[in-house]
Write a structure and sequence with these properties.
This protein is an alpha/beta fold and 575 residues long. The protein contains 21 helices and ten strands. The strands form two sheets. The protein has a six-stranded mixed beta sheet with strand order 6-7-8-3-9-10, with helices on both faces. The longest helix is centred in the N-terminal third of the chain and has 50 residues.
């Protein structure tokens, strides 16, 4: 979220999402206005009944007609309100659906660095809590705010025609009551933004604490991590309590005054009635009006409060939609050779480049292995090739075209990427592998699993290929998840494969079979492999030794043993 304190509104930030449904919102407001008119008519007939009762002659037949009409108007009022609310809900849910789709589509186009800077807790809160939190206001605000403002306004105008003196008493009393509550809104946008920040910190702490509970227990960091979690939860609670304490006096004072506008009407009315300047039926009618004005005004005030909250939420959503996207074009990948030309890249907030003037060429259909110590920049180079980030300078070319000219769809289709941090969806193992090719038959999926060396353990699962993987693949071990991810990549049958420590979680027995399967699957394809175990890549056409973000040497295994002391040392340690 931007740090400026400029007050924002939902309509200013995300109002464009309402435009396609403007007709529905308009109909909802029109029906709400009809509800106001029918509600006022009920009051009018009640006033007529009062006039007849106070008159010398009272026709029971006429009273019954007025009572029936008042009841009918009240029923129509309820029907109109419900129809108006139904229509506004229809428009609101479509509006929020479009916002969710826009945010989801935007996330796909953002660089990976954005997700490292903004934790999953915050993004989950935006996509679910923030957007869902706007539903009540959006669905009810336009029709009900319209009704709750028009009704008291019409009542006050009507009251001035009935008796302007008592109308002034009502107006002054209500203004005094709402003025007393004005202190609640002081610095409201900043206060609410602070509440959101405290909630985000709490969400992130909860996500981190629950997600890392196994590590926390294993390393005996329960006290320290729980302290951080506890501080975030208490910080959120303390912020809300302090804010409530600051506003409570204004809220209590306002609620002690504004709802009871009948008091000045009673006092002034008795005085005017006693001196003969106020008819009893007029006195009765004004008391009815005074008791009906506050409730809709209070509901309208609650929407102003929610509007301020919506503005803060909308600003957070708009900030995501305005984030700089990956630079992509509309060209298709026409060749499968890869070139990095003087590429430099730094992670956000880091001064030292993770990739420092890297230049590499990978002919189509050959294998490049990136090796080096942990943190040397191997994964960064691979992810730049896959298009996860845009380089700060230099060029990444695939098939002779700059990656910025290629469409994201083409990159997704032509590149299969297997990360060391594999992710599986909470669907069946069969469907997780089939994601590589949604049109694949069960037999083709099983063949890919066999090729990746995971058919045996899958069949040993409780429901075989129909076993659910669990949230993020949590029901499977790290090695099992990794082999399923490799099977999924094989299923994709992409001409470019990038394997980032694809066998890191595999045991030695399975690693050999997986490497053999990968070698078979990668024939005729361009393959980029990151590995710590040099024995798994010693037959690559090219091996690049990466150190401190730079390419120290490039060559075959035998060549690097001669020209690169660091590679030779790492090889000696691995055999």
């Amino acid at each position: 979220m931007n740090s400026d304190n400029k007050q924002t509104s939902f309509f200013g930030e995300l109002g464009s999402f309402m435009k396609p449904y403007g007709v529905w919102y308009g109909i909802s407001v029109a029906i709400s206005a009809a509800a106001v008119i029918s509600g006022l008519a009920a009051y009018a007939f009640a006033g007529m009944i009062a006039g007849k009762l106070f008159a010398e002659s009272c026709d029971i037949h006429t009273l019954m007609i007025y009572a029936a009409l008042a009841a009918l108007c009240k029923v129509l009022n309820g029907v109109f309100i419900n129809v108006s609310t139904w229509i506004s809900h229809h428009a609101a849910y479509h509006t929020l659906s479009d916002i969710r789709k826009a945010v989801s589509a935007k996330l796909v186009r953002l660089p990976m660095g954005y997700f490292e800077k903004n934790g999953s807790g915050r993004l989950k809160a935006v996509l679910t809590d923030r957007i869902e939190g706007m539903e009540q206001t959006l669905a009810h605000m336009l029709p009900e705010l319209t009704a709750n403002l028009l009704a008291p306004l019409a009542m006050m105008i009507w009251g001035f025609f009935i008796d302007w003196r008592l109308a002034v008493c009502i107006l002054v009393w209500i203004i005094a009551g709402f003025a007393a509550t004005g202190g609640m809104m002081k610095n409201y946008p900043e206060k609410y933004a602070g509440q959101i920040a405290a909630m985000k910190s709490m969400n992130q702490a909860v996500t981190e604490y629950v997600g890392g509970i196994e590590v926390i227990k294993n390393f005996g960091r329960a006290d320290e991590c729980y302290g951080k979690f506890k501080a975030a939860v208490y910080g959120h609670a303390e912020y809300n309590i302090n804010w409530q304490r600051e506003t409570q006096v204004f809220s209590s004072l306002g609620m002690a005054i504004a709802p009871f506008s009948v008091f000045p009407v009673l006092i002034a009315g008795i005085i005017f009635y006693s001196n003969g300047t106020l008819a009893p039926e007029t006195f009765f009618m004004m008391m009815l009006l005074s008791m009906g004005i506050f409730r809709p005004l209070m509901q309208a005030m609650s929407y102003f409060d929610q509007l301020a909250q919506m503005g803060t939420n909308a600003k957070e959503i708009k900030d995501i939609l305005d984030e700089p996207e990956l630079k992509r074009g509309d060209r298709e990948i026409s060749g499968f050779d890869i070139e990095l030309s003087d590429v430099t890249f730094s992670y956000s907030g880091e001064k030292t480049p993770a990739a420092d003037h890297i230049s590499l060429k990978v002919p189509a259909g050959t294998m490049l292995a990136l090796v080096g110590l942990s943190g040397s920049g191997k994964s960064t180079a691979a992810k730049l090739i896959a298009g996860f980030w845009d380089a700060d300078s230099g060029r990444v070319l695939i098939g002779g075209r700059d990656i910025s000219q290629l469409s994201q769809k083409s990159l997704n289709q032509k590149i299969a990427y297997v990360d060391q941090d594999t992710f599986l969806f909470d669907i069946s193992v069969m469907d997780n592998i089939r994601m590589g090719d949604p049109s694949a038959s069960d037999e083709e999926v099983i063949n890919a699993a066999k090729a990746a060396g995971c058919d045996d353990f899958i069949r040993a699962l409780p429901n075989g290929y129909d076993t659910l993987a669990g949230a993020a693949g949590g029901r499977l071990s790290g090695g099992e998840r990794q082999r399923i991810a490799i099977a999924r990549a094989m299923m994709k049958n992409a001409p470019i494969m990038i394997l980032d420590e694809a066998t890191a979680s595999s045991d030695p027995e399975n690693e050999a079979s997986i490497q053999e399967a990968l070698s078979a699957a990668s024939r005729g394809r361009t393959l980029v492999v990151i590995a710590h175990r040099l024995s798994t890549v010693m037959n690559a056409e090219q091996i690049a030794y990466v150190k401190n973000g730079r390419i120290e040497a490039v060559g075959t295994h035998s060549e690097l043993l001669e020209i690169c002391p660091d590679y030779a040392k790492q090889w000696a340690m691995s055999v």
